[in-house]
């Protein structure tokens, strides 16, 4: 009689699962698993996966549980592999996962994780090569979490160790870039508006004009003009480049060209000889915050073009 009641219970549960909402169907399938009705649970979970893609990951987890309980270990491992490939941080439900199931998840993760980390980094690198450092940060953080997992599982190798240093360097560089942008915004917020400080009056003759007659504004002088006193640095802070990033640019150097206006502010900046998008962006952001005592000609401030050599090695800071 008890066998008949159990069979009726399972049939009723399946009928309810089919008619219920997807989440309810998943709950009913889990109940079947908890009741040791592994074949019925497997069938119900397959239907949930097919009808509700948003629940497929949870359904697959319990499909692996059911297959393992039925002794179909290789099939269970294949499902676990699918789960981990979709979410490298997936862990089995502690309420239903036995120590042997946890061990199976751990073994599959150890096997997959090194290649998954390398593949994820290749994808991030494509974004970095486009100079989109900020956009790459979420993926960089994901790679870092995956590397932390690899450390805890003891599957780090030399390649992954190098990636760990490199990814950390890019994350630090992104933070430096964000800090520079924040500092620039804060400086603009507290700076007085141009209208609040009227420029000093000066006779027109004292403002040197361009050779074309002045149609394009004041002339920009340079080191080639011997009768001009060069600008004097007041503030010229450079970004710190993590050593792990700088070492990927060994032997490279660039030339930054800036135009310093009559107030000693940076009016324009460009990399005349670029290094790469990440490094160049960090340097250009820093340059916008620089301040000088302006160049002088015959006692009057003038615009001045200055070139500054920049090297990743010179700006590198070793991680502690």
Topology:
Layout: H1 2-19, H2 22-34, H3 38-51, H4 56-69, H5 73-86, H6 99-129, H7 133-153, H8 158-190, E1 220-221, E2 232-235, E3 241-242, H9 243-246, E4 254-260, E5 266-273, H10 277-287, E6 291-293, E7 295-297, E8 300-310, H11 312-315, E9 316-317
Parallel strand pairs: 1-8, 3-9
Antiparallel strand pairs: 2-6, 4-5, 4-8, 7-8
Helix pairs in contact: 1-2, 2-3, 3-4, 4-5, 5-6, 6-7, 7-8, 8-10
Question: What this model shows, in words?
Answer:
Helices cover 55% and strands 13% of the residues. The chain has 320 residues and is an alpha/beta fold. It folds into 2 domains: 2-153, Alpha Horseshoe (Serine Threonine Protein Phosphatase 5, Tetratricopeptide repeat); 204-317, TonB (TolA/TonB C-terminal domain), CATH 3.30.2420. The strands form 3 sheets. Strands 1, 4, 5, 7 and 8 form a 5-stranded mixed beta sheet that branches. Strands 2-6 form a two-stranded antiparallel sheet. A two-stranded parallel ribbon has the order 3-9.
Q: Tell me the number of helical segments per DSSP (H or I, 4 or more residues long).
A: 11
Rg is 32 Å
CATH topology of the largest domain: Serine Threonine Protein Phosphatase 5, Tetratricopeptide repeat
DSSP E strands, number: 9
Oligomer: single chain
Straight-line N-to-C gap:
71 Å
- Major β-sheet annotation: 5 strands, mixed
Helix and strand element order = HHHHHHHHEEEHEEHEEEHE
CATH class category label of the largest domain: Mainly Alpha
């Amino acid at each position: 009689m008890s066998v008949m009641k159990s069979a009726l219970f399972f049939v009723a549960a399946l009928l309810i699962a089919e008619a219920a909402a997807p989440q309810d169907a998943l709950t009913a399938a889990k109940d079947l698993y908890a009741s040791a009705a592994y074949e019925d649970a497997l069938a119900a979970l397959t239907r949930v996966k097919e009808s509700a893609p948003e629940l497929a990951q949870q359904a697959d987890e319990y499909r692996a549980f059911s297959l393992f309980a039925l002794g179909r270990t290789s099939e269970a491992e294949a499902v676990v592999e699918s789960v981990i490939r979709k979410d490298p941080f997936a862990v089995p439900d502690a309420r239903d996962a036995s120590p042997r199931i946890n061990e199976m998840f751990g073994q599959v993760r150890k096997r997959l994780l090194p290649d998954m980390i390398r593949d994820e980094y290749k994808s991030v690198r494509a974004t970095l090569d486009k100079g989109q450092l900020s956009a790459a940060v979420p993926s960089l953080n994901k790679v870092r979490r995956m590397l932390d997992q690899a450390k805890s599982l003891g599957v780090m190798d030399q390649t992954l160790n190098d990636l760990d240093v490199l990814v950390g360097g890019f994350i630090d560089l992104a933070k430096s870039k964000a800090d520079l942008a924040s500092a620039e915004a804060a400086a603009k917020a507290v700076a007085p508006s141009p209208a609040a400080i009227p420029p000093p009056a000066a006779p027109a003759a004292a403002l040197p004009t361009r050779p074309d007659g002045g149609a394009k504004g004041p002339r920009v002088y340079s080191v080639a003009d011997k009768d001009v006193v060069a600008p004097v640095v007041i503030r010229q802070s450079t970004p710190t480049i993590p050593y792990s990033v700088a070492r990927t640019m060994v032997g490279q150097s660039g030339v930054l060209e800036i135009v310093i206006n009559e107030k000693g502010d940076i009016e324009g900046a460009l990399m005349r000889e670029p290094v790469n998008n990440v490094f160049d962006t960090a340097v250009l952001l820093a340059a916008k915050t620089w301040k000088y005592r302006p160049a002088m000609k015959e006692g009057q401030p003038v615009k001045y073009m200055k070139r500054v050599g920049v090297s990743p090695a010179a700006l590198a800071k070793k991680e502690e």
